[in-house]
Amino acid sequence: MAWDLLLTECRAATMEGAGDGAGYGAIEDAAIAVSGARIAWIGRRADLPKHTAKETISLGGRWVTPGLIDCHTHLVFGGDRAQEFELRLGGASYEDIAKAGGGIVSTVKATRAASEAELLESARGRLARLTAEGLTTIEIKSGYGLDLANEMKQLRVARALGRDGNAAVRTTCLAAHALPPEYAGRADAYIDLVCNDILPAVVAEGLADAVDAFSERIAFTPEQTARVFDTAKTLGLPVKLHADQLSDMGGAALAARYGALSADHIEYSAESGIAAMAASGTIAVLLPGAFYFLREKQVPPVDLLRRHKVPMAISTDSNPGSSPTLSLLLMLNMACTLFRMTPEETLAGVTRNAAAALGMGATHGMLRAGYAADLAIWDIARPAELSYWLGGNPCAGVLRAGRWVGRAFQA
Fold first, then answer.
1. In this structure, are residues 378 and 62 in contact, taking their beta carbons and an 8 Å threshold?
2. Which residue among 160, 287, 306, 336 has the highest number of C-beta atoms inside a 10 angstrom radius?
């Protein structure tokens, strides 16, 4: 066997079966072979087959995991909302701010005013912070344009970030995120625009991998969301849903009815909705950063998700209003401390389950022969440390599609 790269003297958290008490799918004293952009072989170093390798690197006992995956972000936007943070600390609620013209609509104004180059520069800086912590794949939503030109502008920027090569980028059209000011009182007319103009144009330009919507009292009704999803399905795009974040509007069940890749937030989802997700294979994406930043009280139904065997993904929800975070590792700790998840569940939540939430479960999220050679290398004694430490960054190296994008140790 001829390989491009062989990593030896490492411990591998393969994440095969992880999240179900499988102990991270760990291999002690492992070796990992890479050919091109794929993992060619992985196993115990003692079982290495006869081979040649262009380069062999000892990792000195470091841990290797799949590259981390952030499966729900709003990374491309203009401005910030630090002022709203102060208002919330003074007692205003998320809904109060939104109804007064703040919230998502204020970011829409700043995003529309920003040039494509300005959006790309600011988003690159945010993405660099995430990739430095072992991230190799990220989902980026639109939803701050809310008209044809600006939704496409956001998605073009997201595609450009993917072409940089440091992370794989999956794009999601979230035009049904909020009602733009020019459509005040005319929500159905705006949904007409989304279905008849925005989504077809986005698909024609190849700018989106999925479609999302925000179904909530301050956003769109289940009926309006269903119209968006019907259009997405006609256009051949899978769907995702911001579901049941602030109230139980049946979002989890709606997502399941459309075979959604994921239902995200789901703090208020009823057991019937969770059971429907289990039957449809819809992943639960939990967003502890937004829960923390908004000082919410309703914890996602983690016990119900476990009981119904619904896979749980974890994400930053990185956005300027409700989760201004640039650390996926911090989300692991928050998921443990706020949602009472285990370290094993949270690491599965940013690897194998996050990959499934993006429709990438057959190629990403595990260390397995044939899978993408997306690896994160860690200076830790055990995988639980990734959700244990508050601050600091133990990432010693990142391999993305078989190419080093960061390495802090000598070969």
1. yes
2. 287
Give the CA dihedral 17, 18, 21, 23, nearest 10 degrees.
Answer: 110
Burial class (CB in 10 A: 0-12, 13-18, 19+), 362: exposed
In whole angstroms, what is the distance from residue 154 CA to residue 147 CA?
A: 11
Kindly give, in sequence order, each residue whose CB lies less than 8 Å from that of residue 352, ignoring residues fewer than 6 positions away: 15, 16, 18, 19, 66, 311, 361, 365, 366
d(CA 336, CA 327): 15
22 pLDDT higher than 70: no
Strands 375-378 and 63-66: antiparallel
Helix (H, G, I), strand (E, B) or coil at 402: coil
Greatest pairwise CA separation for the chain in angstroms: 69
More confident residue, 91 or 306: 306
Q: Are 224 and 176 a contacting pair, CB within 8 Å? A: yes
CB 289 within 8 A of CB 264: no
pLDDT bucket at 330, cuts 50 / 70 / 90: very high
Q: pLDDT (tens digit, 9 = 90+) per residue, 221-235?
A: 999 999 999 999 999
The amino acid that residue 411 corresponds to is: A
Q: Distance between CA atoms of 313 and 291, rounded to whole angstroms?
A: 15
CA distance between the termini of the chain: 22
The pTM of the whole model exceeds 0.85:
yes
Q: Does an H or E element contain 252, and which?
A: helix 251-257
Strands (E), 59-130: 63-66, 68-70
